[in-house]
Structure formats: structure tokens, C-alpha cells
Amino acid sequence: MTLALSSIIVEIPKVRRKRRLHKPELKAKVTLEPIWGEMTMAQMIRKFDVQAAQILSGKNSY
User: Burial letters for 10-37: b for 16+ Cβ neighbours within 10 Å, e otherwise?
Assistant: First the structure.
């Protein structure tokens, strides 16, 4: 991404977030939570800090 500020060109580097490794305990919670059905998808995403696709892939495996 490049910004031009009155003849000064500033290059903004893209910062990539490190890949996170989740513990088996968290994976089990994320997999079982949608099966119980006590929380909405948005609540689970905020609680576990994961993407919706990760929650759905665990749910669909059962």
C-alpha cells in the first residue's frame, strides 16, 4: 500500500499476524459449543477468538 502526501511517498508495510496454534482443550470447547446450542455464532467468535469457519468445521465433523 502506498500513500502520496503532497509529493512525499510513504510505503506502508503489510504486517502479517503469526499463525496461532490452539491447544486441544480449546479445540474441544470450540467443537462442542455449537452442538450444545447455548450461544450464538457471534458470541462464540468473541469468546474463543476464532473465525466462523473454524467453528463450523468442528460442528460439521459430528
Answer: eeeeeeeeeeeeeeeeeeeebbebbeee
Range of the domain at 41: 21-62
Kindly state whether residue 51 falls inside one of the protein's structural domains: yes
Residue 19 has what pLDDT?
A: 81
> Is 3 a domain residue?
no
Q: Is the pTM of this model over 0.90?
A: no
Number of domains in the chain: 1
> What single DSSP character describes residue 8?
E
Asked if the structure places residue 26 within a domain, the reply is yes
Residues 9-37 pLDDT 10s: 667 778 887 887 888 888 888 888 888 88
